[in-house]
């Protein structure tokens, strides 16, 4: 991580003038190991984005949302595909391993979980 960047300043909560919020990761491996045990979870701070995609494919039109969560790389160590992320009461499956960008940040690509 570049020494001139303080990611905690970048990832300030909304009430402090930033755009970040706290979400909770629930580790799937813990859930499947013992159904009666409380799964391990961990809060992480980041920026949630659910960009909208509308594409015309000939005479067809595709509408899709592509939710993602940008956070510090160090916060998502051990996170993997199939884990869950809870953002403002909504549940999402984590669809890929964290995608690190080399600056100390990582992106989690998400898919809404239908309960």
Automatic annotation (TrEMBL):
InterPro entries: Phage_Head-Tail_Connect_sf, Phage_tail_attach_FII
Pfam families for the chain: Phage_attach
Gene Ontology terms: biological process: virion assembly
Gene3D superfamilies per record: Phage tail proteins (2.40.10.180)
Protein name: Uncharacterized protein
